[in-house]
Amino acid sequence: MAFALFLILGSAAWRVAAVYVPEMSNFAPLMALTFCGAVYFRDRRLWLVPFAALLLSDLYIDWHYATHLGYTWGAGDAVIRLACFAAGLGLGRLVAARRSWLNLFSGALGGSLLFYLVTNTSVWAGDPFYAKTAAGWWQAMTIGHPEFQPTLVFFRNTLLSDLGFAAAFVAVMEWSGRRAGQPGLLGRTTA
């Protein structure tokens, strides 16, 4: 339980800290933790860790944006984010059945793309700032609101963090598994 608490607090703190460094927005370990947790954690209760960190950090980030920028997220936005994370969990379960380096990479990449497309399309559909045309959708996907970083920066950070944190998570899990004498992704053991 201490490990789960550490992951919740660490992931939430990382995500909140990015509010103060705009270049780091969306550079967070949460989707990688969700995806890799489904691949590696046998205790399904640990699958809830990223969801708790997401909800905890959302509370602060929502307050910060509303207070400092006058921009608020609604409950529907939170549900969309949770649904994207649930899909990341599903991707992890699919990959767990056929774990390979390629499948791990593809799953992490798929989670990033899914989150980007779904959340930005949702914002485009619900935000009166965007024209409800293909051009308005493209603006939501690339430039976004002028008071924020371009949405392509958010996507770049999401992609880099998902791939980087997933790689680190997989490396630690594979290393610890080999030390315990379990076969790794390539089927070798060190014991």
Description:
With 191 residues, the protein is mostly helical. It is 71% helix and 0% strand. The chain contains seven helices and no strands. The longest helix is centred in the C-terminal third of the chain and has 29 residues, at 151-179.
Task: Tell me the total number of β-strands.
Answer: 0
Give helix % range: over 70%
Q: Which spans of ≥5 residues are poorly predicted at pLDDT below 50?
A: none
Computed over alpha carbons, the radius of gyration is 18 Å
Portion of residues in beta strands equals under 5%
Approximate shape = globular
For the termini, the CA-CA separation is 28 Å
- Briefly note the structural class of the backbone: mainly alpha
Q: Report the sheet with the most strands, covering strand number, pairing sense and barrel closure.
A: none
- Helix tally equals 7
Order of helices and strands: HHHHHHH
Mean pLDDT reading: 87
Give a quick set of tags describing it.
191 residues, mainly alpha, 7 helices
Short description:
This protein has helices at residues 2-17, 30-40, 49-69, 75-97, 101-126, 134-142, 151-179. By secondary structure, the protein is mainly α.
Task: Please outline the helices and strands.
Elements: H1 2-17, H2 30-40, H3 49-69, H4 75-97, H5 101-126, H6 134-142, H7 151-179
